[in-house]
Protein: Surface antigen domain-containing protein
Amino acid sequence: MQRNQIKSMASLMRGMAGSAAGGGLGATSAAADLGQAAVWEGIRATERQAATAYTKGVLQNAQAQIASDRTVLDADRPAEARAILSIADGADGQTASWKNPATGASGTVSIQSVESESSEYRCRIVMRAWKGSSMRTGSMGICQHQGEWYELF
Structure:
């Protein structure tokens, strides 16, 4: 319970005790107030549980949508990454193929330069093609900083 709720309940209990000494009518009123507070607390808890369940459902749906929109499935990304790294420093238009024997998927990647305003970063666009249960194409950005390549989008 929160501090304000504890103070409120303590106040109700004092009122009940005082009313009992003075004839008892106040005790009935205080008990009703205490019962009403308990009901409201139960409603708030139920609302919190419903909101939590709803939020979890929305998050799971969003994650499923993101996964279905990916050009390359997670299981195939290591094979694709090896192909990207093999051409990341290459000339524009260079292409590499990859295959994942575990999933049967395959694909190609090709590299294009991007003008960068920063001397600290070297960025490239990777054109991607994935063939598994369907054919998907897309692109992503990679940038190199201090010798390491990073996926941007």
Remarks:
- The chain has two domains: 3-69, 74-151.
